[in-house]
Design brief:
With 219 residues, this protein is an alpha/beta fold. Helix content is 32%, strand content 25%. The strands form two sheets. It has a six-stranded mixed beta sheet, sandwiched between helices. Helix 3 crosses helix 4 and helix 3 packs parallel to helix 5. The radius of gyration is 17 Å and the shape is globular. The structure holds adenosine-5'-triphosphate. The site of adenosine-5'-triphosphate (ATP) has 10 residues, from helix 1.
Length: 219
């Protein structure tokens, strides 16, 4: 589903922040991505979401060479990917419900059809009493859960999450991990970037370790 061959990334004239990355991500797979702060995890997620281009090497996503994808085709590809950004990126003028429902609206679904499903997911992530609140009044952990709900609601083929449990307590972190595992079991490939070793120990999955821009994989 995803293939990297000798991928390198540099932001400016300096050193490469990612070096010689070669790996595959299979359909229906689950992997954690870990490594010290500044190792390049967010940069790797941005390459996977096609919001950055590599400086060298080949990236293919859903079987398509990303250098050959026209800008106008990007939204269609990104629609197949759910992403939880480290800074959440909720839309401040929409309620929690509307933010989470957005991927379904974009797919042309009717609110009467999806309303109950969105409400149930919001309750599941502990936001049942924040459905009509706007992001500026949510706490960091509440925003994070809304961002997670938005990323999973349309059951994407590929889920990327950047430190998705960084703002919640260990009990809630376990609950959110269960959500990712359920999604994985229903067919999604999942990649979760995290520093949380206790969280990774809860689920037997492949670990991608980034250190100083280089990747090692522990099956
Ligand atoms: N837009 C940018 N311009 C220049 N350098 C950048 C940019 N974004 C990231 N970097 C640099 O690239 C390196 C990797 O950063 P990245 O955010 O990918 O690491 P990370 O592993 O996600 O870190 P953290 O765990 O702290 O979020 C760092 O040295 C960072 O300073």
């Amino acid at each position: 589903m995803v293939r990297f061959e000798n991928v390198g990334l540099r932001y400016g004239p300096g050193q490469e922040v990612l070096r010689d990355l070669s790996f595959r991500i299979a359909p229906h797979s689950f992997q954690f991505l870990t490594g010290p702060s500044g190792a390049g995890k967010t940069s790797l997620l941005r390459l996977l979401f096609l919001s950055l281009k590599p400086t060298r090497g080949l990236i293919s996503v859903f079987g398509r060479d990303t250098t050959a994808i026209a800008r106008r085709d990007l939204p269609d590809i990104r629609r197949r990917i759910g992403i939880v950004f480290q800074d959440f990126r909720l839309l401040d003028h929409l309620t929690t419900f509307e933010n989470v429902a957005l991927p379904l609206r974009v797919l042309g679904r009717e609110e009467t059809v999806y309303r109950a499903e969105v409400v149930e997911l919001l309750r599941w992530v502990g936001l049942g009493d924040r459905i009509n609140a706007y992001p500026p009044v949510l706490s960091g952990g509440e925003k994070q859960r809304a961002a997670i709900a938005r990323a999973v609601i349309a059951r994407p083929e590929f889920l990327l999450a950047d430190e998705p449990t960084g703002n919640v307590d260990p009990h809630l972190a376990r609950r959110l991990l269960r959500l990712f595992v359920e999604l994985h079991k229903s067919g999604t490939s999942v990649l979760i970037a995290t520093h949380d070793i206790a969280l990774m120990d809860l689920y037997d999955a492949r670990r991608f370790l980034l250190e100083d821009g280089r990747l090692t994989i522990h099956d």
